[in-house]
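Ligand: NAP. Inputs:
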Amino acid sequence: MQLADFTNEPLSNFKGNLELFRLMQEAVAQVGTELGREYDLVIGGERLQTRDKFLSINPSQKDQVVGVFSKGNAELANRAIQTAEQVFKSWSRTPVEQRVPLLLKTAEILRRRKYYYAAWMVYEVGKTWPEADADIAEAIDFAEFYAREMLRLAGPQPLTPIPGERNYLEYLPLGVGVVIPPWNFPLAILAGMTLASIVAGNTVVLKPSSDSPAIAYKLFEVLEEAGMPPGVVNFLPGPGSEVGDVLVGHPRTRYIAFTGSKEVGLRINELAAKTVPGQIWVKRVIAEMGGKNAIIVDSETDLDRAVEGVLVSAFGYQGQKCSACSRAIVLEPIYEAFLEKLKQRVEQIKVGPATEPESYMGPVINARSHQSILEYIKIGRQEGRLVAGGDAVPGPGFYIQPTVIADLPPQARIAQEEIFGPVLAVIKARSFEEALEIGNHTEYGLTGSVYTQNRQKIGRAAEDFFVGNLYFNRKCTGALVGGHPFGGFNMSGTDSKAGGRDYLLLFTQAKAVSERIDF
Ligand code: NAP
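Predicted complex:
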């Protein structure tokens, strides 16, 4: 099987292309007519309902129900694992030549109805049009990229020849994987972890985030339409604290692919490390967690471009990206000028419903998050100087002003804890060395960026800035599959690289076979 080289799915320019604007507008109207429906759990292809339901709501307009979902429970979680284990017997032996086309077909369907799925994200998680478009583009990229990667891994692997022996190495799937995604890339990350799992021959119990089960269900439907056999992926929404623990702790769970907060990731890691009766392997945990990412703005730089980069990285998708810039570390000589320009730009940001194309920022995800971010802003006002924003925005959704707090010490709480909202901490540095020290002064190590025109400083930061994804003279968000393999150090996760060439190995185990031929 031969595929053309991987290329990234292009992003849609809604402002510059009237036709694309119209398509997205139609999709938003269409999805608007489909809200409020009820959705089933799916185990082994069987549609199931529970009495206990939960709602997915539109954070832009909190009285609008996006979907009604059956709540999974411990019994169904056990059943889902058993089913996935049963189906693993056949799926693990399904040739790669049949598993790979499932991903390609998935990509094709997603591409065909791109704006429809993007519109679901607009309603369910408050992504603005360009952010929703980028999310689905990334999902398509994961499908195309992992399809190609699986073909590479299924091919002959280089081994040192040994006289008198015929040797080969093959990558086998692991078994039943529990996939637990976050809500903030409700399609891309969910698709990435699920597709990597199944193309490698594993079967999956997918527990979507309780904030974004509708878009998860939509992907599940796409997989079915693409020809996925029943039970290869089992769809089990439900509260992480109940269903999650059962799935993670189950003796037949072989691995957990998780993306989310540090707290939950560490808990999963701990639980997975406990061996339970009936378990005959060491569970693998692939965990991608939080960040407290910094952009260093050096004095030798184009200030306008740096301000723009910080602005986009800090407030794109309301600061709710794991890669978002939540600390700007600015060199003393340009500190005040930077703040002045940033303040002007931040005050122009339009906050409003994600359905409206002119909104630059939509709502934050839910009431809990809204409250916690406002709490952090309160703390930040005591720790530093409020430069812009600082309050909720009145309206029917969870809106918060883009907020900038300056003059913070590096160890301030809002400069250390992941807030996951539109709050930027600004810290002054006396030298470039000190800026790097402050940059590294965190338990996380996900993304970082440096704006400087000095090549020596670029060299120094390339060596010393300890983050999994380091950028120069550009924003610290927007990693592209294939080009920017993504994942961080320290408390940002288990050092995996989604969208990179090492990623699928995490979902496989290698078997080395050796035969004497002079026997
Ligand atoms: P979260 O609260 O940790 O939830 C993530 C997932 O874990 C959800 O599906 C959640 O289900 C589930 N969960 C909760 N408790 C669980 C438990 N005890 N056992 C098993 N699963 C459990 O994170 P989030 O708010 O969705 O996402 C935001 C976080 O994700 C941020 O920290 C962000 O930095 C991080 N993130 C990291 C990356 C990366 O690549 N490093 C990418 C995106 C996001 P419920 O919804 O039902 O609680």
